[in-house]
User: Which sequence fits this backbone?
């Protein structure tokens, strides 16, 4: 299947790499492909720059945001939370019509220092704002609650973890469930419509505190039940 | 040990019953003991009224809020979130000096309908507000993330669940850990100081969504890690 990734950071790389490994045709979208390829700065965690990563994955295409959205069936939103709405607006909401948008972003506000707060919270969420901005797309919120490596390899945290998802469109959710299973998730809980994105985004604070406590991002949440 | 419970609802009953079963001397505090005993209304879940429950637990004492706080070493705050700060203020913050306060409450705001929102969120929490109001007490936040039965019997959800706690005082946390172990919790994560109460209270939305999805409150969170 043709898959598009918005965002060139570690989340975008992890998802793109895994989808490609699973045999999907993957395009990564960026604002300016030439500039992205010319960038030789380390990524946000001190790892190799995207330009180096993409050279190691020649099967993955690089395109503009718009080319990517128009050419694929499923779009993974791996943009920084504070860039999501402006970027989607600049691409043009109408271009997303009929497509599934898997939203992995988080509304993290680092402007007041660490730990970040959430810029949508309680009675709103970034997932809902994306669905409002793209009324003809089918937004599914998932995967935002683990680190990039665990997203596509849950065994890194432990085989028994739970992944949640939510969204308004049953077909987009069914496709997302298939992809989650291909990533290695077996305990998948559908929390209902896109308003459940509030609860998934509000998991970030406990994720951050647990990460600080364990000193590792290799963990995930499991809903234990009888 | 002498233990005090503030609140006569299902959480207060569950904690009081378990502590008593474990051999502690338990007093439940209420605004007006005579009125509480005269109340024959069902509890919030349609169960028997508190007056009937206390008759079945004759070893548990009933006192005023103030009597309870003054006579015990550890106080469990099992009050409704929206009544906590006014009740503690009316008791008198100075009466809590030197005592451990285990805070199980949640800042749930039902005034806009279901699902509730949180009236402290992001950069504040009810746990922190309690610690600010009771500067000479040692507040420990824990247990607020599971239902009352699971709090004192985690096997009802599954033996492998995780319980978190946080607070500023190491000794109060160590005592709380011992009590959690006696309740049946074995995987206990100390998230640090009382500001981590934000992350524990922000688990309520995912708890509520999971409860709606599973149709049962018999579940708990596990941090899966290698």
Assistant:
């Amino acid at each position: 299947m043709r898959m598009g990734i918005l965002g060139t950071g570690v989340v975008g790389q992890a998802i793109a790499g895994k989808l490609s490994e699973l045999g999907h045709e993957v395009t990564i979208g960026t604002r300016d492909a030439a500039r992205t390829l010319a960038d030789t700065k380390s990524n946000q965690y001190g790892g190799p720059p995207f330009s180096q990563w993409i050279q190691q994955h020649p099967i993955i295409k690089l395109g503009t945001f718009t080319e990517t959205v128009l050419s694929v069936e499923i779009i993974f939103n791996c943009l920084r939370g504070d860039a999501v709405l402006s970027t989607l607006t600049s691409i043009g909401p109408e271009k997303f019509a009929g497509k599934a948008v898997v939203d992995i972003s988080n509304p993290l506000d680092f402007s007041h220092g660490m730990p970040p707060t959430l810029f949508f919270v309680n009675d709103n969420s970034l997932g809902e704002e994306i669905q409002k901005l793209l009324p003809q797309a089918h937004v599914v919120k998932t995967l935002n609650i683990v680190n990039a490596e665990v997203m596509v390899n849950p065994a890194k945290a432990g085989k028994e973890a739970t992944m949640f998802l939510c969204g308004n469109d049953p077909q987009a959710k069914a496709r997302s469930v298939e992809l989650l299973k291909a990533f290695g998730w077996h305990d998948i809980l559908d929390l209902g419509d896109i308003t459940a994105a509030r609860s998934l985004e509000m998991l970030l604070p406990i994720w951050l505190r647990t990460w600080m406590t364990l000193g590792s991002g290799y963990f995930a949440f499991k809903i234990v039940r009888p």
